[in-house]
Design a protein that fits this description.
Oligomer: heterodimer
Shape of chain B: elongated
Strand order of the largest sheet of chain A: 3-4-5-6
CATH topology of one domain in chain A: Folate-binding fold
CATH class of the largest domain in chain B: Alpha Beta
CATH architecture of one domain in chain A: 2-Layer Sandwich
Radius of gyration of chain B: 16 Å
CATH class of one domain in chain A: Alpha Beta
Structural class of chain A: mainly beta
Strand content of chain A: 25-35%
Order of helices and strands of chain B: EEHEEEHEEHEEEH
CATH topology of the largest domain in chain B: Alpha-Beta Plaits
Largest sheet of chain A: 4 strands, antiparallel
Number of helices of chain A: 1
Helix content of chain A: under 10%
Shape of chain A: globular
Strand content of chain B: 35-45%
Number of domains of chain B: 2
Number of strands of chain A: 6
Distance between the termini of chain B: 4 Å
Largest sheet of chain B: 5 strands, antiparallel
Number of strands of chain B: 10
Chain lengths: ~100, ~180
């Protein structure tokens, strides 16, 4: 079973306790009045779909109930690291060559 | 054979509160509650005898989330005390007495039965005395608190009660 380290609980828990909540570090336009439709569209729907490491939001819904961020590898499903909401993403070490 | 001493029993009628508060307010709440609220996440604290008058339970299930559980008859009194003491503090105190039902799973096979549906490791090293956490049991969310080596206190949403009992009964069959 895939175990995920919750940065709030500081324990590794089964993936069953978590929900993926989409890409991390996407900020809402600060002034909706002057935001164009294209910008809203970008904010709402446009997401990267990289092959490799991606920053995502996760929710420990059946645990402490907190949102946190994680760096996950979309190829191997490895959780490289997890960190609390509001913290800047850690500098991602360049991927080790196989 | 499952050990016949392993039993799932209903908890006595209880009043339950969810308190969301910062560290400072937590200390204030603990002072009037009569039991210091745990500082560490996923820890439980208690005093008094379970189900008896004066019993107090405090479980820290999130960074700022506490469950306070007291005998049903004392619920209104505790609520009034906390209401007064926490007036003006930024916090939330919600009565969830009837949201969930409580069980006690006790006996030598208790951890084995829980493992049938829950991915947590119930070894004493991984899940020591006093640890309390939400998790999943089969298809439902539940809260489990280890009160003693072989005694687990469990809370599930009220409508999941029969399901939880049935799944534990099912797991007992598997121990044959």
């Amino acid at each position: 079973m895939l175990l995920i380290l919750c940065p709030y609980c500081q324990s590794r828990r089964a993936e069953l306790e978590f929900r993926n909540v989409g890409a991390a570090h996407i900020s809402r336009p600060s002034d909706p009045q002057t935001t164009t439709d294209a910008q809203w569209g970008e904010f709402l729907y446009q997401r990267d779909n990289p092959k490799g490491r991606i920053a995502e939001r996760w929710l420990h819904i059946h645990g402490c109930g907190r949102y946190f961020n994680a760096i996950r590898d979309t190829i191997s499903d490895v959780f490289v690291t997890t960190y609390k909401s509001g913290e800047p993403p850690p500098a991602m070490p360049s991927e080790a060559k196989p | 054979m499952p050990d016949s001493a392993t039993m799932l029993t209903n908890a006595p009628p209880l009043a339950r509160f969810v308190l969301r508060a910062d560290a400072e307010t937590t200390i204030k709440a603990g002072a009037v509650y009569g039991l210091d609220l745990p500082l560490t996440i996923n820890q439980g604290a208690s005093k008094g005898e379970r189900g008896k008058p004066g019993a107090r339970v405090a479980l820290k299930l999130g960074p700022d989330e506490f469950w306070l559980i007291v005998p049903e008859a004392e619920g209104a009194g505790v609520r009034a005390l906390l209401d007064t003491a926490l007036a003006g503090c930024v916090c939330a105190l919600v009565d969830v007495s009837h949201r969930q039902v409580g069980f006690v799973l006790s006996g030598p096979d208790a951890a084995t039965l829980l493992s049938s549906g829950c991915p947590l490791d119930f070894d004493l090293r991984a899940f020591p005395l006093g640890m309390a956490t939400r998790s999943v049991f089969d298809k439902i969310e539940f809260m489990v608190w280890r009160m003693a080596q072989d005694v687990f206190r469990i809370e599930v949403a009220r409508s999941f009660g029969p399901y939880f009992e049935a799944m534990i009964a099912e797991a007992r069959h598997d121990l044959v």
